Amino acid sequence: MCGIFAYAGRQTDAAGMILDGLRRLEYRGYDSWGVAIRNNGGILTEKQVGKIGSAEVSMPESNAGFGHTRWATHGGVTQCNAHPHLDCTGRLAVIHNGIVENHDELRQEVRNAGHRFHSETDTEVVVHLLEDAVAARNGDPGAVEQATREVFARLDGLNAIMVLDSHSDKLVAVKNGSPLVVGYGDGRNYIASDASALLPHTQRVTFLSDGEMVVISPDGIVARDAATGAQLQPEVLELDWNVEQAELGEHAHYLTKEIHEQPAIVRSIALSQGDTAQKLADMVRDSYGTFFIGCGTAANAALTGQYLFSRIARRHVNFAPGSEFNYLEHFLTPQSLVIALSQSGETIDVIEPLVRGKKEKGIQVAALVNVLGSTLYRLADFALLLGAGPEKCVLATKSYTAKLAVLILTAYALDGRLEEGQQLILQAADMIEEQLSDDNKARIADLTERIYEREDMFLIGRGMSYPSSLEAALKIKEVSYIHAEGFAGGELKHGVIALIEPGTPCIVFAPNDETRGGILSNAQELRARGAYVIGVSPQPSDAFDFHIPVGDAGDAGPIVNSIPAQLLAYNLALKRGTDPDKPRNLAKSVTVK
Ligand code: F6R
After folding, report:
1. Does the residue 592 lie in any domain?
2. Ligand 1 atom closest to the CA of 347, numbered from 1
3. Residues 266 and 409 in one domain
4. Residue 236 DSSP class
């Protein structure tokens, strides 16, 4: 999704610093970018289509400016549509995250007032509205702030807007939906759409709430209520991430770096999250109806949670993808507990039903979330921080296994066996380490050679291995662009088996549990139709053409079994020449519906 990085400070290295900030936001996904700085009472901009790569901006010294990475929604991927957008006079520049839902009607009004448009974006209406609102204030020193509040109130949808005024070194930001984080430096202040971009500069931050406006300048930061203009006292937090955690280090890509971080993260969850897991378990026990929601990989973790709670704690929980939960809300009551899973804590398809559910039905919300201060973190009645560190690859890996580890601990805590759960997670951490041994990586490289030219792949599992098959398929398809589909093993013969052709790679999850007999029969059915069957299992089987041995982790099987597919996805991406960290069309933090 779009990224914002802004700077106002005493030093005059704005352009370079902003470009560096945008590079740190690249992982969010974007297709064009731009920078604007104040210069000699005017504004200089530079905009380009494509990735920043090794680009430099040749701009003069300046002490205030901002930059934007655009993930196109309204209007194609062109230089004109890239942000920042300027008003007709060149005094004001605007960058924007979100969608102005009433942009058509506003555009008509602005056109009728004589403004000329240079882009097809919804954003450009904002800067022309601002131009008129500032002009109407006729030299008032607070004109840009007041105009920003007035114009923002007219925008429908979930938006974050930033305004640069060539007449002052103040930058104005306001938000309602899209994340913005203010960073406090010494004579240097910042705003970014993501805290990880601020790490080289500061760890002292404020996460803006919806309906808040902030003005940053070299002298400080002033926060206001966007509706009333009343001054607010922002809550300043200290980030517990450091800049090294957000950098590649010795690794070639974030995907492999983050895969290799998993043993330590899972171990630390076992050792340090006992109390928080117990608290969550108590909330589940006290609720009347518990729901797990999440999107994409988080949905696969949530679905696994449904199986884990049934198996470990004999407790029924409901699962729904975040984007569907709005249509299942009719039976929610104040006794309902919704546990939202989200790495970023900003996924709008998760946030939106929670906001409605809290407001209209009085539900309780708990969150398994990785980003301190994120919207979900602040919204939840109880937020459990995953502690996985910054996840910069678009593919979720370590946040997925972290969520599974917390869910397992919570299910064990609910059953009064927290310590047993902790031991199990520690064993799983050792088994992930084994999966990451050179021998196992060589095996995955061998498998990659055998299948990388295929365009279709199927994956099956039963019970809690069913969501493992969905997640493994998601990892493979999003980064290699191979069509990979996960299915419940028993469902295959009800239709999908028609798609099996000689040599079609099929991954079969066959743990040592009650699903083994059934899934091996399904593997034989595939083999009988010519499939190339790859077994992920503690034991070999006649049903497998290729065996990937994994440790027998019992209830923690979904954690350990996810590693081979993560490694395979990485290897397939390298072999097929795709970008392992920034797959096409995808964004890390999905803040639009
Ligand atoms: C897949 C992936 C996405 C995210 C999804 C939810 O690898 O990364 O499917 O899992 O967009 O994101 P969060 O967890 O931030 O809510």
Report:
1. no
2. 16
3. yes
4. P
